[in-house]
UniProtKB/TrEMBL annotation:
One of its GO terms (biological process) is D-alanine catabolic process. PANTHER family: D-AMINO ACID DEHYDROGENASE, SARCOSINE DEHYDROGENASE-RELATED. The lineage of its organism: Bacteria, Pseudomonadati, Pseudomonadota, Alphaproteobacteria, Hyphomicrobiales. Residues 19-412 form the FAD dependent oxidoreductase domain. SUPFAM superfamilies: FAD/NAD(P)-binding domain. This is D-amino-acid oxidase. Belongs to the DadA oxidoreductase family. One of its GO terms (molecular function) is D-amino-acid dehydrogenase activity. One of its GO terms (cellular component) is plasma membrane.
Length: 441
């Protein structure tokens, strides 16, 4: 069974014109269109499949500041405040709760790293608590194990990946924007060197501004425009359990396995950082840019299969605007999970939390996590193509910071004071090497 997802009804006909067209209805595109619509901007959100059906419904749902890189921490903090307001603004619940995140460890080096992050975060006004062995054992009593220490971040939380992007899309509709599912954008038209229209499979929308929030498809789309965006994907496998025991930590990370309570009372299980590297033409093309990233993470990555090559999201091909494109041939990127990893994850979770033993598996799935060479997203107007804003490469963190990213995009489009400093996200930074700049987590 694939990842659960709330299906919503959207707008049947395309507008002829729009102030802004957002391409890609994951959490980032949905929030960008939402904050634009709330400012009275005529915005159309295009999604080739279903809203939220790719990465944005396949993740753990963590919305965290804990252990965030300095470049992303302000956006993570701002996002938590935006998540908190969302249900009241839209009148629908995206499942966000500031439940706090619990990290437990027996590794002194890891605990020391968390303490260093706590000291840094204090300077940024973020409070997180180091746990002594006794406190860790108290917080982690459901594990039945002894712990040397841990950390608890009370202001962090989780939202429900099966609902969040669709709920935000409902907010776009309420605010007067339009949302179009099963509608792939094939390309962009330009006039006098700037964006003038978006060509979709259902017709053309004239517009002066495009936001490309196409997740793992962003780089191949950029290539059609002569824009070089180094991007690579890692396949991450994950499973969920049926509703079961209560009284477990809402969100628990250990080096062995991480467990998150889902909105339906079940649990999501995954091994942090573990992934499969499926070769693709694009990955070979950008291999050099990603050496610093993979040099750091190689221990957690296993060689994958050819399924990403076949999926087409990382093709180097050029396509025409008057014929079906790879985005229409693959409406929802739905890779197969690594079954050995799924079984290992389940085994470790049952060992960590004995109350999970005998709770049936509800579903298992995989998702391609799209990453940049330094692990920080690209958000900003692309030099040389006025009106074209790139918002992709969220590197495994985009769900939690989706609200802040969407707000920042709306700020950049409307010229409003930016929610956070946009400089760390500028797409031009990829012209320089990522050595020494890879995000810690
Ligand atoms: C297993 C897993 C666990 C994760 N855990 C977390 C977590 O706990 N916390 C966290 O913050 N992040 C997590 N992430 C990362 C997070 O899910 C992503 O960073 C985030 O969802 C990216 O959102 P997005 O909108 O950029 O991309 P996506 O959700 O992938 O959306 C992009 C959308 O664009 C559409 N699209 C592409 N091209 C076109 C086109 N030409 N026309 C129309 N539509 C198009 C696609 O169909 C897709 O729906 C995890 C990811 C995975 C896979």
């Amino acid at each position: 069974m694939p990842a659960p997802l709330l299906h919503i009804e959207t707008t049947p006909t395309l507008p002829a014109t729009a102030d802004v067209v957002v391409i890609g209805g994951g959490i980032v595109g949905a929030f960008a269109a939402y904050y634009l619509a709330r400012r009275g901007i005529r915005v159309a959100l295009l999604e080739k499949g279903r809203i939220g059906a790719e990465q944005s419904s396949r993740n753990w749902g963590w919305c965290r500041q804990q252990n965030r890189d300095a470049r992303e921490l302000p956006m993570a903090t701002a996002s938590l405040a935006l998540w908190e307001r969302l249900a009241a603004e839209i009148g629908e619940d995206a499942g966000f709760r500031r439940c706090g995140l619990l990290y437990l460890s027996n590794n002194e080096v890891e605990i020391a790293g968390w303490a260093r992050w706590r000291d840094f975060a204090r300077g940024a006004g973020v409070t997180t608590y180091m746990l002594s062995a006794d406190e860790a054992n108290e917080h982690g009593k459901a594990t039945g194990q002894r712990w040397k220490g841990g950390v608890f971040s009370p202001s962090d939380g989780t939202a429900d990946p099966s609902r969040a992007a669709p709920v935000v899309a409902l907010g776009i509709l309420k605010a007067g924007g339009s949302v179009h599912q099963m509608c792939a954008a094939r390309g962009i038209e330009t006039e006098a060197g700037r964006v003038s229209a978006v060509v979709t499979e259902a017709g053309t929308i004239r517009t002066g501004t495009v936001v490309l929030s196409a997740g793992a498809w962003a780089s191949s789309f950029c290539r059609q425009l002569g824009i070089r965006f180094p991007q690579a994907s890692v396949r991450s496998s994950i499973l969920s359990l049926a509703p079961g025991p209560s009284g477990l930590p809402d969100a628990l990370h250990t080096a062995e396995v991480s467990v998150t309570r889902r909105g339906d009372g079940g649990h999501t299980l995954a091994i942090s950082g573990r992934g499969s590297l499926d070769p693709t033409p694009q990955q070979l093309r950008f291999a050099r840019e990603f050496v610093p990233m993979f040099a750091r993470r190689w221990r957690s990555l296993a060689p994958g299969t050819l399924q990403a090559w076949r999926a087409g999201h990382e093709t180097l091909a050029r396509w025409r605007l008057d014929a079906p494109t790879p985005m229409e041939r693959n409406r929802i990127l739905d890779p197969s999970p690594n079954q050995r990893l799924i079984q290992e994850t389940y085994r470790r979770a049952c060992q960590l939390l004995p109350a999970l033993q005998n709770v049936p598996v509800a579903a298992s799935w995989a998702g391609y996590i799209d990453s940049t060479p330094d692990g920080v997203p690209a958000i900003g107007e692309v030099e040389g193509l006025p009106g074209f804003i790139l918002a992709a490469g969220f590197s495994g963190h985009g769900f939690g910071i989706g609200p802040g990213a969407g707000h920042l995009i709306a700020d950049l489009v409307t010229g409003a004071p930016p929610l956070v400093d946009p400089i760390p996200y500028r797409p031009e930074r990829f012209e320089a090497s990522a050595w020494g700049k890879v995000a810690e987590f």
